[in-house]
Design a protein that fits this description.
mainly alpha, two-stranded antiparallel ribbon, 47% helix, elongated
Length: 298
Amino acid sequence: MTGAEDLEQFIHRQENAVRKYRRLFKLAEFVILTLAIYTVLLLINMENAFGLVRALELYADKSYDVASLTISFSTIALLLISIGISLIITLLLYRREKNTSVILLAEEKYPILKERLRTAYDNRNLNNVIINDLIYSVLEGTKEIHSSAFLDRKKLKVVFILLIFTISALGIVIYSDFRTDITPEGMKEVIDNIPGIPGNDNTPEDYFPSDGEGDEAGKENITGEPVVVVVEGEEVDLSIPPGSESGFTPTGQEDENQPKFKPSSSYEVGQMTAPAYREEFPEGYEPIIKSYFEELTR
């Protein structure tokens, strides 16, 4: 294996280590955010919010048995909500993350390799005495570099402390059943009382104002001037268009001469011989059948 290949292998190995550390930090931050959000949701009694949703009220008090443990629907739902929110926040935090070059990190931590490691790696495909000597000298300096050197230990301590804190806080809230006075019902009332939100300040009287109350409101002159109602800044004309009253007679001008109808004459009701009597009956049965139907028509 040549010196250039050894140098490429060293850089590749350190890049894998750096990516692994970054993934671990992202995972730890995601877990911390999930635990923190879940703790806050428990503190403000958000498990009671599912009973206010018509589509979920049937499942609000339902529980599931998982590995000899009974887990309520509200616990699962709050956990899923916490995971979703923390996932969105984590993606937003690392959306524009810039990958720092391992070569720059190595040169920053080991000043002896400054500029030399970068130059050797950029010219690794050249084959001359100067480049070969530079590559071998750089490889000698990298023997003391371990992958753990690229681990941000300060950040690791902060993440570890936050993880312990969130786990402890969640454990205290769960086992002590500690809750605040904030409830979903109270938050809904506060939101409904906020001015400026559509639907909070509008009532039917705002759109259809009346001129009076009680009996006075029912004495409106409907035959007077057209009434104009203002709805959201627009004027609505409620007057009847000309010609729409055609076909109606004003009150007091009805025609008193009502037409006289004569009932149509009907035929006289009496006994009629049915056409069936003219049919051919078996010999000896005709008188009996005729007498039977004559009795029915009496």
